[in-house]
Amino acid sequence: MHSTASNGSNKPRKERKVTLIFKHTTADQHVAGVEALAVSADSSSLYTASRDSLVKRWDVGSGRPQCSGSFEGHIDWVNDVLLFQDKLVSCSSDRTVKIWHAGEEGAHISSSSSSSHSNSSSSGSAGGRSNSSSSSSSS
C-alpha cells in the first residue's frame, strides 16, 4: 500500500529501501544485540554473532573474556554461527552463508548467497555440492 503525497496529488510515493552500516568505534565490543553464540570444543573461545553484522571471537579461558578476533563480511544481521572442526560458519539476514577459518581473524574461505529465484554457492562450501544453475561469489 502506498500513501499519497502531502501536496494533495494522488501519485503514489516511491518505496525506498535503506541499508545501515554501523561504524565500529571499538574493536572489542559489539554495537548491537547478540543473536547467537558458539563455544569451541576446548571451551577456550566463544563466538558471538550480532545484529551489527559482525562475528567476534572471545578468549574465555583466563577469567574476563577478551575479544581476540573479528569476522567482517556480512552487510546485515548475523543470525547464527556454528563451529565445525576448524571452520566457522555464519548466516545472515543479507541472505548469505560464509565460511571462515575459526582461528584466524577475518580469514574468509567462501560464501553462498540465495535469492528468491536462484541459489548460489561457491565450490568451497561444506559438502562441495553445487547446482548447475548456481553461480559463485566471494568477498
Describe what this molecule looks like in 3D.
The radius of gyration is 19 Å and the shape is elongated. The protein is built from no helices and nine strands. The strands form two sheets. It has a five-stranded antiparallel β-sheet, with no helix packed on it. A four-stranded antiparallel β-sheet has the order 1-2-3-4, with no helix packed on it. Residues 116-139 have low confidence and may be disordered. The chain has strands spanning 34-39, 45-50, 54-59, 66-72, 78-84, 87-92, 96-101, 108-114, 119-121. The protein is mainly β and 139 residues long. Helices cover 0% and strands 39% of the residues. Strand 2 and strand 3 (54-59) form a beta hairpin.
Looking at this protein, list some descriptive labels.
139 residues; mainly beta; five-stranded antiparallel sheet; four-stranded antiparallel sheet; elongated; disordered C terminus
Give me a quick take on this structure:
The protein is mainly beta. It has strands at 34-39, 45-50, 54-59, 66-72, 78-84, 87-92, 96-101, 108-114, 119-121. 0% of the residues lie in helices and 39% in strands.
